[in-house]
Amino acid sequence: MRKNIVAGNWKMNTTVPEGLELAKEVNAAVAAATPKCDVIICVPFTHLVPVAQAIDTNKLGLGAENCADHAKGAYTGEVSASMVASTGAGYVILGHSERRQYYGETSETLREKVALALQNNLKPIFCIGEVLEERENGTYNDVVRKQVEEGLFNLSAEEFGNIVLAYEPVWAIGTGKTATAEQAEDMHAFIRSVIAEKYGKEVADNTSILYGGSCKPSNAAELFAKPDVDGGLIGGASLKCEDFMGIVSAF
Ligand code: PEP
Asked: What are the strands, taking DSSP E only, across the chain?
């Protein structure tokens, strides 16, 4: 059966010493709390090695926030999936709306990134979600279906089994505006039905689908209580150990 997961996305926040301190704090809190879900922190590339050395990655998963769409070579400034894996990380966020919006990531580049992540035993946390206009004009299901189909449906069922999905309505990210638990559940159930159409019910039922967008300790329990919401991808609230653990303890 699918796992419940709470994953932090630190984005471009914290220096290395600050990040190391936060990671150690979360690591200690997770060790003390025995959470009822998998807990993951996704950190800037510069933080991966020291954080991997400072935490118990068997108890607190570690991920990157992106990886390159090429395996290696003359791509100045890029960080490959194999480099990420060599730090000890086990996850990588791919297709975050900020990468799609500000860095022009397309389904085509994302397919390359997903393939390279999987080849290097990294589990992709693959983000999808509509913008406000698409929510308001009612095309959100079509938009999300297209992102899932174009980004992932070239995978075999076995490969797809390593994907974690994160539904993040763009209008809810960092805005303080959370999707209602009903809106989240409707979309998560829809995404699961799209997966079932392609790979069958068993694969769909085994896929963890996280919600992301202004998730915080005060709304996490209501969201996570929904049957198709398997946890959260947490931005702002993952930068404070107390808030992050407040969300983890919602399970
Ligand atoms: C995110 O960017 O993945 C996110 C969910 O951000 P926030 O929690 O800050 O809305």
From this structure: 5-9, 38-42, 60-64, 91-94, 123-128, 164-167, 209-212, 231-234
